[in-house]
């Protein structure tokens, strides 16, 4: 089989390859769960290193509670639950259960470290409002 020239255009980038056979794998951002920024992934990676365990993942969940009705939970978890959505961000595995996923679709988790505050922040386009303290949403 003669070699052929293939041009693939995706996400505004162009790839050229000359081969007899071409295998392309395109990884897209998950549309089912949250996105972890580079800063948040770095902080989570540092915290995981302190734990000294290779089996832990960052689990992000939405639970009933707080003054506005729903609250976020972020914690390390070793469990694999049926229906979990697993994403990888710079080597950090982020897990979301199937019930929480619709609430977290398109949410961005970042880590802030300023003189005024330090911690994880969640920018969630699905939240229509939150309480005054910012710990819960609806």
Structural overview:
This protein has 138 residues and is mainly β. The protein has helices spanning 38-51, 101-104, and strands spanning 4-10, 13-19, 35-36, 57-64, 70-77, 85-89, 92-96, 108-113, 118-123, 136-137. The strands form 3 sheets. A 5-stranded mixed sheet has the order 6-7-4-5-10. The longest helix has 14 residues, at 38-51.
Keywords for this entry:
single chain, 138 residues, mainly beta, five-stranded mixed sheet, three-stranded mixed sheet, 41% strand, disordered N terminus
Topology, pairings included?
Elements: E1 4-10, E2 13-19, E3 35-36, H1 38-51, E4 57-64, E5 70-77, E6 85-89, E7 92-96, H2 101-104, E8 108-113, E9 118-123, E10 136-137
Parallel strand pairs: 3-8, 4-7
Antiparallel strand pairs: 1-2, 4-5, 5-10, 6-7, 8-9
Beta-strand proportion: 35-45%
In percent, how helical is the residue content?
Answer: 10-25%
Question: Helix tally?
Answer: 2
Q: Gap between N and C termini, in Å?
A: 59 Å
Structure summary:
Helix content is 13%, strand content 41%. The chain contains 2 helices and 10 strands.
